[in-house]
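quick one, 161 residues, struct below
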Amino acid sequence: RPFRFAGVDLDDEAGSESGICGGRATLRRWARFASRHERLRLRVDAHVGPTAPPAVALRYARLRGASVARELDSLGLSLDRVDVASWGLSATAAAAASAHPNGDSARAGCGWAEIFVSQASDGVGGRASLELPRRPDYYPAAAARRLGEEAQLAEGGGCAA
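---
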């Protein structure tokens, strides 16, 4: 592993870097729910733990999100209905400073992934008119930091591996 807690094992229930609470069982429930509601989309927001080197954090979060999306695809949910956002380290510090349960993961040095469900306003992938569950309060601060991380990666300041 390139850094502490660098796994993406979806079945790891020990609170390590697996990221999805409940692992594959949780993803099966999400896939079943989405399959019953064809206008809904799932969004996977993937995060890394604070020990991830900044040069690879965003890329590693992308790998975590892609792992979750592939698992949803293997459960029959078309990738056309799954959006993945990688947050790198941007949400880690904000979550760690919050009282949100994801802060526990961040303070423990672990990464995580969250799944949100949205309904497109036009039914075919347009701008979301509704997103649940409500995003944790630390997201606005994390969003500004994420833009900086993406710009640094685009300028060659990060590793594309």
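Residues 54-74 form the longest helix (21 residues).
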